[in-house]
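Repro:
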Amino acid sequence: NYEETTGVNIHDHIVEIEVETPVTVAHYVGAWKGSIYGYSHSLDDHAVARLQMKEEDHFIEGLEFAGAHGMSGNGMGPAVTNGRAAAKGVLDSRKEQKEDYRLVSGYMKLADMLNRRKGADK
C-alpha cells in the first residue's frame, strides 16, 4: 500500500481515475491497434519542435503532461523521462507544500532507479 509505505495520504486527493484499454487508445488517439508506444516522428513533430513549443503548451500552472507521447519522445523509456519532467514541473510550481514534495520526489527516485537499472541491462 503506497500510503502506508510513504506515510502520504493521496486517497483523499484523488478526484478521478481513468482506465483505458487499447480500444480506448485507438478510438481517442487514433493509434494503430491501440499502440501505447507512440507514433513515428515527422519533421514538424520531433524533439526540437516539441521543446520550442513547450511554453505554448503550458497554460495551466501546476498541470503537467506525462506519458508515452511527451516532450522527450515516444515509447516506454521516454514515458519515464516525461513523468520525471512532469514531476519536476509540479515541484517547481509548488515547492512550499511538503506533502506534495514527498509524494512526487518518491516518484522521481523510482524513475531514477528504473533508468539506472535499464542502463545496467544493456
